[in-house]
């Protein structure tokens, strides 16, 4: 019991010394250069590292997945990736372009994902996405928008989003 009280007291003292970190969430990865975001995402998805996948998204991030479904917030993004990594075999992603504006970077990606269907078939799908990263107050870059088909030709997008 004394140890528990001591731990609580230590936490209170630390938050008084540095109140910004009192409620700070520990992330499994830090992106100090926005150009690393795509590679970190690709490596994490291929290795099925759920915590890393979730930790590269801001708390208020929005993702647009197949069917135009909007996924908002890290909790929903975690749920999405927890299911997605079960069927993903691999992804190859290339950055087509990027546009920097102060604390925000817009990317267009081209990628091919290989996944297994419920009936055991292997399917390969290629398309183009649009992603946006924003620099956080702590210097970390996080994805705030991830539109899986945002860079695709509209006709192709309609086929992919069914």
What features would you describe in this structure?
By secondary structure, the chain is α+β, with helices and mostly antiparallel strands. The chain has one domain: Nuclear Transport Factor 2, Chain: A, CATH 3.10.450. Helices cover about 35% and strands about 35% of the residues. The chain is built from five helices and six strands, in the order αααββαββββα. It has helices at about 1-15, 35-45, 50-55, 75-85, 155-160, and strands spanning about 55-65, 70, 90-100, 105-115, 120-135, 140-145. The chain has a six-stranded mixed sheet, sandwiched between helices. Strand 3 and strand 4 (about 105-115) form a beta hairpin. The chain starts with a helix and ends with a helix. Residues about 5-25 have low confidence and may be disordered.
Secondary structure: elements and pairs:
Layout: H1 2-17, H2 37-46, H3 50-55, E1 57-64, E2 70-72, H4 74-87, E3 88-101, E4 104-116, E5 122-135, E6 141-147, H5 154-160
Parallel strand pairs: 1-6
Antiparallel strand pairs: 1-2, 3-4, 4-5, 5-6
């Amino acid at each position: 019991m004394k140890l528990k009280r001591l731990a609580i007291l230590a936490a209170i003292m630390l938050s008084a010394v540095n109140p910004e970190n009192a409620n700070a969430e520990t992330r499994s990865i830090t992106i100090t250069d926005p150009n690393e975001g795509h590679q970190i995402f690709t490596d994490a998805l291929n290795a099925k590292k759920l915590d890393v996948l979730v930790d590269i998204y801001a708390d208020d991030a929005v993702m647009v997945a197949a069917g135009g479904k909007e996924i908002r917030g890290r909790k929903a993004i975690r749920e999405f990736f927890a299911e997605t990594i079960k069927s993903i075999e691999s992804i190859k992603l290339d950055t087509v372009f990027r546009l920097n504006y102060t604390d925000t970077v817009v990317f267009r990606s081209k990628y091919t994902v290989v996944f297994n269907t419920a009936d055991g078939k292997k399917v390969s799908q290629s398309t183009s996405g649009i992603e946006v990263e924003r620099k956080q107050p702590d210097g970390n870059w996080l994805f705030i928008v991830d539109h899986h088909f945002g860079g695709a030709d509209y006709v192709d997008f309609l086929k992919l989003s069914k």
